[in-house]
């Protein structure tokens, strides 16, 4: 789904029509308020964002997107009548992935969207980690064992994510406590042990990948033989 935030109804409708006629799904929004409300229910693949909008301008909206954990990685193409080098620099420095100046051709817009999606998809793939039959997709917040989804609590997911990102490395209980639970003191390692035990159970056949290093902590994947 592509979101187009544009106050000019003629441009907005033309963009949505063009995208849908080329096989993409698209929705149009006349201002930042209705756009931000829609984000609570759906996360788009990409946002086309005009700078000159009623109420909050596009730059302020972009800042909000980049400062929110849920939306910070959504690709954004700034689409605006402002064409000066300064405006482009501000947009790109704020976190835009590309910049288009009105007027522009619809086919060029489609081409730019596809290029940004290809680029950002490669980045998203780097947030997927796999050890044997266990796969975790951090971006989509999903875990699979043998291709089947596994439901985890938030802390279980964060624990598995930490182990997968540091595979083959032993993580101490104290480090896991501090980085996942925010504890800055020792002596509460049972919290980690309990979560590891339930995590192993939920992962089924992949649970044995989580190795206990006696007296130290845990690691996933065993020794790195690569």
SSE layout and pairing:
Layout lengths: L1 E4 L3 H13 L4 E4 L2 H8 L6 E4 L8 H9 L9 E5 L4 H10 L3 E4 L4 H20 L2 E4 L2 E4 L4 E4 L2 E2 L4 H12 L5 E2 H9 L8 H14 L6 E4 L3 E4 L6
Parallel strand pairs: 1-2, 1-3, 3-4, 4-5
Antiparallel strand pairs: 6-7, 7-8, 8-9, 10-12, 11-12
Helix pairs in contact: 6-8
Question: What attributes characterize this protein structure?
Answer:
alpha/beta; five-stranded parallel beta sheet; elongated; four-stranded antiparallel beta sheet; 226 residues
Question: Can you characterise this structure?
Answer:
This protein is of the alpha/beta class. It is 42% helix and 20% strand. It has helices at 9-21, 32-39, 58-66, 85-94, 106-125, 154-165, 173-181, 190-203, and strands at 2-5, 26-29, 46-49, 76-80, 98-101, 128-131, 134-137, 142-145, 148-149, 171-172, 210-213, 217-220. The strands form three sheets. Strands 2-1-3-4-5 form a five-stranded parallel β-sheet, with helices on both faces. Strand 6 (128-131) and strand 7 (134-137) form a beta hairpin. It is elongated, with a radius of gyration of 22 Å.
């Amino acid at each position: 789904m592509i979101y187009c935030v544009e106050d000019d109804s003629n441009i907005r409708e033309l963009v949505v029509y063009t995208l849908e006629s080329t096989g993409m799904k698209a929705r149009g929004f006349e201002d930042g308020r209705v756009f931000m409300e829609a984000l609570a229910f759906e996360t788009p693949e990409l946002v086309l964002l005009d700078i000159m909008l009623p109420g909050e301008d596009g730059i302020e909206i972009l800042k909000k997107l980049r400062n929110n954990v849920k939306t910070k990685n959504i690709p954004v193409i700034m689409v605006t009548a402002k064409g000066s080098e300064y405006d482009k620099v501000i947009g790109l420095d704020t976190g835009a992935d590309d910049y288009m100046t009105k007027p522009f051709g619809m086919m060029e817009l489609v081409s730019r969207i596809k290029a940004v999606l290809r680029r950002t998809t490669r980045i998203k793939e780097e947030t997927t980690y796999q050890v044997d039959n266990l796969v975790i997709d951090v971006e989509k917040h999903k875990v699979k064992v043998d291709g089947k989804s596994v439901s985890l609590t938030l802390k279980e997911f964060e624990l598995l994510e930490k182990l997968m990102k540091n595979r083959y490395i032993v993580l101490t209980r104290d480090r896991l406590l501090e980085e996942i639970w925010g504890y800055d003191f020792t002596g509460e390692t049972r919290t980690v042990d309990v979560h590891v035990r339930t995590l192993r159970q939920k992962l089924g056949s992949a649970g044995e990948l989580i190795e206990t290093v006696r007296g130290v902590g845990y690691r996933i994947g065993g020794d790195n033989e690569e």
